[in-house]
């Protein structure tokens, strides 16, 4: 698997994933189950590769030397 996500992208996805999972666990509204979608950004941030980015040809890693 080739990484296609830069550091800032990974940090933002990780924070978003944590926030969504916190909402899923701590939320009391009827739609708090949507927060479990936070697993996706957490996994992509941990791995450093986004399948959607690969599909549409985006690479946020920057130039490689």
Question: Could you outline the blueprint of secondary structure elements for this entry?
Answer:
Layout: H1 7-26, H2 39-47, H3 51-56
Radius of gyration: 14 Å
Shape: elongated
Number of distinct beta strands: 0
The proportion of residues forming helix, as a percent range, comes to 40-55%
Task: Give the biggest sheet.
Answer: none
- Poorly predicted sequence stretches spanning 5 or more consecutive residues: none
The helix/strand order is HHH
Task: Give the oligomeric state of the chains in this entry, treating copies of one chain as homo and distinct chains as hetero.
Answer: single chain
Structural class: mainly alpha
Distance between the amino and carboxyl termini = 19 Å
Percent of residues in beta strands: under 5%
Provide mean pLDDT, rounded. 91
Number of helices: 3
Key traits:
single chain, mainly alpha
How would you explain this protein's 3D organization?
This protein is mainly alpha-helical and 65 residues long. The protein has three helices and no strands. The protein has helices at residues 7-26, 39-47, 51-56. Helix 1 (7-26) runs antiparallel to helix 2. The chain is elongated. The mean pLDDT is 91.
